[in-house]
Design a protein that fits this description.
six-stranded parallel sheet, 36% helix, Alpha-Beta Plaits, binds L-homoserine, Dihydrodipicolinate Reductase, domain 2, ten-stranded mixed sheet, binds NADPH dihydro-nicotinamide-adenine-dinucleotide phosphate
């Protein structure tokens, strides 16, 4: 066997410790598969004294991840700190400047700075790999950059945030309200330190923007992702969607259209019998469509120690084998800047709002929709109190622009008591 691949690991939390465990427990297997041993030389975290459940005393320690990244005795810097800026970015950039390869699980950093970091890496001849940053244990980055490299990718669809899928499926199975299930997810430790990253769709939007870059050969454009969270989904929405044969998912869709690159991460209704509709709990699913291959469906654990460390190790083993693939599947300088599609392709929409229960109220709403060219397909009014009545409407296929125009007219009708919830119905 040739010389070992020497790692410096910064961040010894859930993922970092998972990586250390795999390297220790499977040393022989990894060496056979890689053609050389994989060794940890040095490590870094915030608090040296913290009990991490395993002994780390045989590795050199650095308080400063930048110092770790610059050590002469490491070949690969493994960034598992997290955060779009701060120490993760500083250390990653220092590693690249020192000519080291980098493996990271940090979707926030790459969604915001992926283009400049990838260009810097290529300039230095260093590799930058991020399998673990998207959909945890699912090898979707590898699928796009390698397995499907001979395809024009036509569309990516997916559920890429396990916490949101847990909340939505738990609401469905328990009949509990959003706030109760949110509290439950929090108690189970599912939510990010800043829960808005999960429930506002930001984390999943980061992931979608990274997959888009590979799929469409475009520079990462997280700002171009239309984001909407799940915080306004009520148990009524879940129940009503189920009655109509749908489930509500925080769904990511990216596709190139004649109007530009469409990227959205929004709650949508999907057919209950579809693979996405059947997706339960914290599992992720990514559907890739290519012109030659057709549709492939990948699903599995999107987070957690083992699944995420598994993805980190896939990048590490590639580097040990000498496999070097450009960060986004082609040189970063070749990535184009696609215009952002200002509106999504037309679709039917589900609307929920509360109407003042007085004569002519519904007619005013129907007129506002009709004037904007939005046609009603189905409608239901139920369980109203003395003054107001919840109303559910399913529209015929319409553009989001027309719908937004109609919704903007509703306050002027003087009969709508709450801001409408509008969810796209995605026929898969
Ligand atoms: P944790 O919060 O569990 O661990 C973060 C680690 O970074 C800790 O060990 C912490 O040190 C260390 N750290 C924080 N600040 C510094 C610093 N200034 N210098 C050195 N070390 C520092 O995070 P995770 O393991 O969950 O996540 C790591 C990365 O993986 C993130 O980018 C995350 O988005 C990504 N990821 C995580 C998944 C998961 O399931 N957890 C799934 C997919 C991706 P200390 O322990 O001493 O506080
Ligand atoms: N918060 C993320 C999720 C973790 O729920 O999927 C992994 O990115």
């Amino acid at each position: 066997m040739t010389h070992p691949l020497r790692l410096g690991i910064a961040g010894l939390g859930t993922v970092g410790i998972g990586v250390v465990k795999i390297i220790r427990q499977k040393a022989d297997l990894l060496a056979k598969r890689s053609g050389r041993p994989i060794e940890i030389t040095a490590i870094s975290a915030r608090t040296r004294a913290k009990d991490r459940g395993i002994s780390l005393s045989k590795y050199a320690w650095e308080d400063d991840p930048v110092a770790l990244a610059e050590r002469d005795d490491i070949d690969v810097f493994v960034e598992l700190i997290g955060g779009s800026d701060g120490p993760a970015k500083e250390a990653t950039e220092a590693a690249i400047a020192a000519g080291k390869d980098v493996v990271t699980a940090n979707k926030a950093m790459l969604a915001l700075h992926g283009q400049s970091i990838a260009e810097a890496a290529e300039d230095k001849g260093a590799a930058l790999r991020f399998e673990a940053a998207v959909a945890g244990g699912i090898p979707v980055v590898k699928a796009l950059t390698e397995g499907l490299a001979g395809n024009e990718i036509t569309r990516i669809i997916g559920v890429m945030n396990g916490t949101c899928n847990y909340i939505l499926t738990r609401m469905q199975s328990s009949g509990l309200a959003y706030q109760e299930v949110f509290a439950e997810a929090n108690a189970l430790g599912y939510l990010e330190a800043d829960p808005r990253l999960d429930v506002d769709g930001i984390d999943a939007g980061h992931k979608l923007s990274l997959l888009s870059a590979i799929a469409f050969g475009t520079q990462v454009n997280f700002d171009g992702v239309r984001l909407e969270g799940i915080g306004r989904i009520s148990i009524d929405d879940i129940t009503q969607a189920a009655d109509m044969g749908y489930r509500i998912k925080l769904l990511g869709v990216a596709q190139k259209t004649p109007r530009g690159l469409e990227q959205r991460m929004t709650p949508c209704l999907v057919p209950a019998i579809s693979p996405l509709g059947q997706l339960e709990g914290g599992t992720n699913m990514v559907i890739l469509e290519g012109d030659a291959v057709g549709q492939i469906v990948l699903s599995g654990a999107g987070a957690g120690e083992g699944p995420t460390a598994s993805a980190v190790m896939s990048d590490v083993i590639d580097l040990a084998r000498g496999i070097r693939v450009p960060t986004f599947g082609m040189p970063a300088t070749e990535l184009t800047t696609a215009p952002v599609a200002q509106s999504a392709v037309p679709a039917p929409y589900y609307l929920r709002f509360t109407l003042q229960d007085k004569p002519g109220a519904l007619a005013k709403v129907a007129t506002a929709l009709g004037d904007a060219g939005v046609s009603i397909n189905r409608m239901r009014q139920y369980g109203h109190d003395a003054q107001t009545a919840p109303v559910l409407i399913v529209t015929h296929t319409t553009t989001r622009d027309a719908l937004d125009h109609a919704l903007a007219q509703l306050p002027a009708t003087g009969v709508v008591a709450t801001d409408p919830v509008a969810l796209r119905i995605e026929e898969l």
